[in-house]
Protein 1
Amino acid sequence: MFCGVSKQEAMLVPSWLESLLSSDFFSVCSSHKDSPRSECNMFCLDCQDDAFCFYCRSTRHKDHPVIQIRRSSYHDVVRVTEIEKVLDISGVQTYVINSARVLFLNERPQPKTTGKASSHLCEICRRSLLDPFRFCSLGCKEAMLVPSWLESLLSSDFFSVCSSHKDSPRSECNMFCLDCQDDAFCFYCRSTRHKDHPVIQIRRSSYHDVVRVTEIEKVLDISGVQTYVINSARVLFLNERPQPKTTGKASSHLCEICRRSLLDPFRFCSLGCKLVGIKRNGDASFILSTKNDEITERMPRRLAAKAEEELREGIQQEMYQSMPPPPHSNSRRRKGIPQRAPLGP
Ligand SMILES: [Zn+2]
Ligand SMILES: [Zn+2]
Ligand SMILES: [Zn+2]
Ligand SMILES: [Zn+2]
Ligand SMILES: [Zn+2]
Ligand SMILES: [Zn+2]
């Protein structure tokens, strides 16, 4: 979905996207503050660092791919003609502002509901859309693919000893909080600092981090990832592992990313490889379906489209009863797992 140029050149979630979406634009450049065009409204896809001004562009970012951010009612927008060259913006609502077609970088505060409900809502933040698009902004489109806490989970170091509880028996840091999304912590920290937060427990198998399927499948779509039964519990690996020497008999199932042999016809050896696969190709998702995705997997597309409207409400209700809220983050700047209306707080 997010691949603009080609699959080789642009990933579905290119490395610069997160940085673009979290940059602060329109401050005054400290190097050029006495010049007329000194507001920092440029972003460099190569350097991927802070916003910069017109003059910085012609010096420090000469010949780099740069996009210009504009403003509409104090919100950052970008011209479709610029962004569509480097990103697949399909599904994102565009607007014509000052006779140029633009789209918003991030979710905006919601206007008060006005009575007449739109039939098109952003799938992430539920903002009313003008046209039948799926997302209000690039930020919401990105949030659809990968939950905000996942990268943090996959890069955390587990099983060190908790510095606050090192004299207690259960002090190894084997817990991760989906709300706080910070370092691993221990059993005792959980009951104090992360009381009532959604926490998952990491386990070990031959020195590799695993998580029980029963825990992770509540918050993540793990389809396509090889699972294993270890100590009579079904688990999956967080990350790619070093490959064993090839033994002659090749498996017919290989991880699409790291080429590890798999036992069963799965696509990925681990959550980490699935994440790479999503970023590269976008033909998988981590987000638990709350509506059409769930349906389309099980029936032909033509049928699904027709049935979607009718089934949406009913299916959504059923799934909410059997499943915890989806791990959408409403905003990259806000932490936590907001729950959708049907469940209440
Ligand atoms: Zn400057
Ligand atoms: Zn640059
Ligand atoms: Zn949105
Ligand atoms: Zn602790
Ligand atoms: Zn927490
Ligand atoms: Zn792999």
Note: The beta strands are 42-44, 66-72, 75-79, 95-97, 100-104, 175-177, 199-205, 208-212, 228-230, 233-237.
Protein 2
Amino acid sequence: MKRRRPTHVVELDREGRPTRALPLTDFNAGSKPQPVICCRVADGPPHIASRQGTCDLCLERIWIAPSTADLVPQMRAPTLWCMPCLIEQLKANAQAL
Ligand SMILES: [Zn+2]
């Protein structure tokens, strides 16, 4: 069975709860990098069958969910981050402000 192409990106708040669905055209507007957050393989098995990939920052093995794998080719500037790298980036940004 063929999966539907994603047309929206679900935005998460700081606690990781979905807030709204953003159309891909809006999501791809602008020029900022588009981090995709994944769990590290070392942190345990994924909730759904996922393939393995690599974090673009620390090169740790990460789980890539099927919905993420579908979305990444449609993103303008995707970059895959693991959870610990996201936290490091948030800390670095907080210090830069
Ligand atoms: Zn990482």
Note: The two ends are 48 Å apart (CA to CA).
